[in-house]
Structure formats: C-alpha cells, structure tokens
Amino acid sequence: MSVYVIGTYDITDPKGYEGYVPGVVPLLLKHGAEILVADYQAEALEGRAPGVNVVLKFPSEEAARNWYNDPAYIPVKQIRLKSCQNGAIVMAKEFKAPPA
After folding, report:
1. What is the distance between the alpha carbons of residues 32 and 28, in angstroms, rounded to a whole number?
2. How far apart are CA 1 and CA 37, in angstroms?
3. CB of 7 closer than 8 Å to CB of 95
4. Span 51-80, mean pLDDT?
5. CA Rg, the chain, in Å?
6. Which of 24, 80, 87, 100 has the smallest count of CB within 10 Å of its CB?
C-alpha cells in the first residue's frame, strides 16, 4: 500500500537551504518516491500556510522509512533542520474507501 510523506516548514536561512533540494531529490528517487507537490507559495484556506509544502508518494511504508533512515540522508536532513523552522514531516497511509 502506498504511503505519503508530507513535509511543511519555513525557510529561515535561504542561503543555507540551497543544498537541500539538489541533495534530497536523488535520494527520493533512489527509494521510489514520486514528488506530487513541492510548493513554496501555497495558499492557506484556513490557518497559516508554511513557506514550503511537500507531498511525496512512496510505494510502501518500508520505502518511506528506508529513505528517511538512509545514512546518505543524514547530512542532507541537517541542511533542512539548520536552515528551517516550524517543520513537520509526517507519514500517512493511502486511503482506501470501503466497498460500497
């Protein structure tokens, strides 16, 4: 079953953040992720929209965890953590409607 990883955060150090996207994309592809949303100007319909909103689709929970725990992701993740605030990364399972 597919899972979705949803990331939201505010970039506080744009210069420091510059290496994150080029560092993370190859790792996402390595683990079978599909980038469904990567928006730096999302519109808030309610509440406050974070500066960055990302939705990733992985083929399985195992693939998502393998990406997040990949030793090659550790230094890349540090770029994001050091240059951003108000962050959240959550994993949500695909919704399957019950049979009618």
Report:
1. 6
2. 19
3. no
4. 98
5. 14
6. 100
Residue in the structure block whose two tokens are 């080029």? 22
DSSP per-residue string spanning the chain: --EEEEEEEEES-HHHHTTHHHHHHHHHHHTT-EEEEEESSPPPSSS---SEEEEEEESSHHHHHHHHT-TTHHHHHHHHHHHEEEEEEEEEEPP-PPP-
CA distance linking residue 17 with residue 64, whole number of Å: 22
Token pair belonging to 12: 């506080």
pLDDT confidence tier of residue 97, bands split at 50, 70 and 90:
confident
